[in-house]
Amino acid sequence: KLAFKVIHSTTSVLPAWDAACAEKGLKPKHIPRDVSTHWNSAFDMLDVAVRYNQVIENIMDKRKLALGKYAIDEHEWELLKQLHKVLKVLEDATLFFSHSTPNLVMVIPAMDYIDESFTKGMLKKRTLDPAIHTAIGLAKKTLNRYYSLTDSSDLYHIAMGKSTGYYSDYHSNLSCSFAPSPQAGVFPSCRINTKMDQHGASNHP
């Protein structure tokens, strides 16, 4: 709602938003809207909101803008930050698979990366809000359904059989998983000396 208000209030809220961005040394950027039919739109919205949180707090304090009903309290900000971290994992995976056509055998390691991230998150019960903890639990149930589908996929087993290097390394080394790469444009790489670039190419021998 705030994103809609900023964009469409061109004579008051939008100028105030741009001024607040400049005051904080940030490039003026509108908050994207969450669209149910657009991949990662929820993450894109939260990403800007978290990075521009001081700007949002700034314009909320201006009574003449009448934005008090959109105010976000401390607990809500904490929820947004936790959800942002969860959605970042899914955004990384989506961008990796959408850049090109990754090898089919890389599907399970990618899913393992997501599963490991969610599991670590669920283990931090004392730091996670119950709502976020529950959401991660539901996401893991959905992920488990995908695991069961690969188990019954002949195409997947054929691909794994033809790629014996991946198959033997992956199934004999349980430490093989995806870990975020610090290099820009490179999605998580497998610890069995296999790296996938943003175009889905592999350097596996």
List keywords for this structure.
single chain; 205 residues; mainly alpha; two-stranded antiparallel sheet; 2 strands; 2% strand
Task: Explain what this protein looks like in three dimensions.
By secondary structure, the protein is mainly alpha-helical. The protein has two domains: 71 residues, no CATH class; 90 residues. Helix content is 59%, strand content 2%.
Write the layout of secondary structure elements.
Layout: H1 2-8, H2 13-23, H3 41-51, H4 53-60, H5 74-99, H6 107-123, H7 130-151, H8 154-162, H9 164-172, E1 178-179, E2 189-190
Antiparallel strand pairs: 1-2
Helix pairs in contact: 2-4, 3-5, 5-6, 6-7
GO cellular component, one term: nucleus
Keywords: Metal-binding, Nucleus, Zinc, Zinc-finger
InterPro entries: RNaseH-like_sf (IPR012337), ZnF_BED_domain_contain (IPR052035)
Structural class category: mainly alpha
Oligomeric form: single chain
The ordered string of helix (H) and strand (E) elements is: HHHHHHHHHEE
Low-confidence stretches: 164-205
- Structure annotation, total helices: 9
Helix content: 55-70%
What is the tally of beta strands?
2
How would you briefly describe this protein structure?
It is found in: Nucleus. By secondary structure, the chain is mostly helical.
